[in-house]
Amino acid sequence: MSELRDAAMKSKAWPYEEARKILKRWPEGKPGGEAVVLQTGYGPSGLPHLGTFQEVARTQFVRHALAELADWPSRLIAFSDDMDGMRKVPPNMPHPEMLHQHIDQPLCRVPDPYGCHDSYAAHNNALLREFLDRYEFDYEFVASSECYALGRFDEQLCNVLAHWDAIMGVMLPTLGEERRATYSPVLPISPASGKVLQVPVEVIDADAGLVRFDDPDAGPIEQSILSGGAKLQWKVDWAMRWAALGVDYEMSGKDLIDSVTQSSKIARILGARPPEGFHYEMFLDEEGQKISKSKGNGLTIDEWLAYAPRESLAFYIYRDPRAAKQLSFAIIPKAVDEYHQFLAAWPGQAIDKRLGNPVHHVHAGDPPRVDMPLSFALLLNLVAVASTDDKDLLWAFVKRYAPDAAPETHPELGALIDFALAYFRDFIADALYRRAPGARGRRATRSRCRARRDARGRR
Ligand SMILES: [Zn+2]
User: Fold this and answer.
1) CA spacing 20 to 30 A to 171: which of 109, 133, 371, 424?
2) What is the pLDDT of residues 299-313, one digit of tens each?
3) Residue 158 and residue 295 in one domain
4) What is the span of the domain harbouring residue 316?
5) Residue pLDDT, tens place only, 368-417
6) What is the CATH number of the domain that holds 51?
């Protein structure tokens, strides 16, 4: 154990560098033996995508690294900002006309267009949790709506009202003239329309949580912002959450550099210490565009898992978080093969090399022994040569390369053959047999994938 700890203290692998920031934050451990809190955030404004998933996975890697460095308890919070107002209806959603009637209402109060959950947010939350659970992550799911409604944020909400001018002093210089005129750190929930209101707000009584504002549907009104009567504007909300939940660590995308700067200032005003963390680069689609929930571009988690083992996705997410990375079907075979190469190397490596090996983190320090005699690339070639989806026939081909391999003794190879068949069928066969490969073929494949995804979305 101490050998591992010594090596982890020196390792340059990024999860250890991040975890050592937490050690530096609490040189004597967190006061009272309290658990270190690592948070990830996500907005359930659309179906969860890989960008959401990767943040939880990467934070899990940091948490595991921390466990190898110190015997401290820790918690991982997956926070869903379901009090956010619905700004627009994403494409591919069923019942768009129904959803349009709920624009600006908190996502947790918009009905589920699929009809299977209590709300629009609950539906998307459930999907995210399903993905996280598939990876057996140990996390606490926390919904913003519950924290607000149950009064978990009340103390900090009064704190925000008490420091109103200082918070305005941070925010106003960052805003354009028009926005400045109506900006308020507090967004009241209209008792008339249920909408999250962006209106000027006057503090009446900070201790009682009382504010006054002009409700477009109900006129001038005095209302308590406690227990669900309001939510906070994004950057203030983030800072308040750090203070209320005692967050020690939170990473975020490069698109949030400004948010972190301002939220950190506000957290200090609230008497809290901003968490440690770093900015990861964004995932791009095959055309180099940032993937986003509203555009629905880029790979989905389901799509990756249809063509490759789940560990290969965690492996791809592990690597180079500070480099912009493409997320498209084309990268899957290489990721699968590199994953297996690292997996095969791990048992024979010295401890310092093991800690730098991605599979050490993907498998929480205990990678399985897998005998994978053939690469995914070679399997794809075999499928092409055999020109068949008969699995027995493929095993016969495989045995020419790996005479000892059999379905009973090599289940991982068996699974990879299934993936190779699916990948070949959906991405290579058309290009190979029906038309010359090129832009047209790629576009056709692409639109077919979209069609498949749309069909799934409608289910
Ligand atoms: Zn649902």
Assistant:
1) 109
2) 788 889 999 999 999
3) no
4) 285-458
5) 999 999 999 999 999 988 887 888 889 999 999 999 999 999 999 999 99
6) 3.40.50.620
Q: Tell me how far the alpha carbon of residue 459 lies from the centroid of ligand 1, in angstroms.
A: 10
Measured in angstroms, how far is the CA atom of residue 453 from the centroid of ligand 1?
A: 17
Question: Are 417 and 273 members of one domain?
Answer: no
Cα-based distances in Å from 373 to 190, 224, 316, 385, 416: 63, 65, 21, 19, 11
Residues 275 and 291 grouped into a single domain = no
* pLDDT given at position 445: 44
Residues 408 and 336 reside in one and the same domain: yes
Cα 128 to averaged position of ligand 1 atoms, centre (Å): 12
Residue count of the chain, please give it: 459
Name, in order, each residue with C-beta under 8 angstroms of 228's C-beta and a sequence gap of 6 or more. Answer: 145, 148, 149, 189
Q: Are residues 248 and 351 in the same domain?
A: no
How many Å lie between the centroid of ligand 1 and the Cα of residue 97?
17
- For residue 120, the CA-to-ligand 1 centroid distance in Å is 7
The whole-number pLDDT of residue 388 equals 79
Tally the domains of the chain. 2
Same domain, 327 and 442: yes
Each residue of 216-246: pLDDT tens digit?
A: 999 999 999 999 999 999 999 999 999 999 9
User: In angstroms, what is the span from residue 96 Cα to ligand 1's centroid?
Assistant: 15
- C-alpha of residue 47 to centroid of ligand 1, in Å: 11
Shared-domain flag, residues 250 and 359: no
Token pair, residue 333, equals 């075979």
Q: How far, in Å, is the centroid of ligand 1 from the Cα of 115? A: 5
